[in-house]
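User: Working on a comparison across species. This one is Inner membrane ABC transporter permease protein ycjO from Enterobacter agglomerans. Can you predict its structure so I can line it up against the others?
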Amino acid sequence: MLNLSGWRNFLYVLPAVLVYAVFLLFPLLASLGISFTEWDGTSLPVFSGVSNYLRMFSDPVFWIALGNNAILMLFYTLLPIGVGLLLCSFLYDTRNNSERSVLRILFFLPYIMPMAVLGVVWRWLYNPAFGPIDQILRAIGLPQLALSWLGDFTWALPAVGLVATWYFFGFCLVLFMAGLQRMDPSLLEAADLDGSSRRQKFMRITLPGLRPELRIALLLTVIASLKAFDLVYVDDAGRPGHLHHGDQHLYV
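Assistant: Here's the predicted structure for Inner membrane ABC transporter permease protein ycjO from Enterobacter agglomerans:
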């Protein structure tokens, strides 16, 4: 039996548990149940067993979407974390507090913008006719590199992935800089006295000290890569198949 304190604690978390159950747990279980039926959304669902899953796994488009998901995960996860780590270490080694604050704000700005808005902006930047990227490449004498970035099956996915990298690396940078601020500065000072190089300090002090932040960044960016619908949908408008993605496959 719960004592009075236990019941009080339970009542504190009850609203959050109810919200979680109603808006997340129940829809998840309902979707799982519906996946074993044939249902058009209006009539009564008819149980169909695992036929929906067999049809999904036998669909070649599903495997294409899954592969694109894996590629996008690289741009959503590994590249932002890597760039954020290196830039964080560089800023702490070469910049003072005021410069770090300004740069941190500038790098974080893309993250506060809606992803769909960024998709529209970058679709304009990538435009082969009047987009600034191709215009600059032609102006500096590299017309062979001026491509239809979003209209090419080879470059469409990396082009969109780089937008995601640009979007998330500022978030990772701010997260890692916050992690460095909680670390004991005497560790780096002792490493300097021992004559450790910048690489040694990064690998043996900075990186191990940022493990909690790395786990958070990895978790959030992986989740974002699996939900990358808005950016892909906006940039793939009118070009079905170029960026076919897991969320788009569900949407279609």
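For your comparison, note: DSSP finds twelve helices and two strands in the chain.

User: Helpful, thanks.
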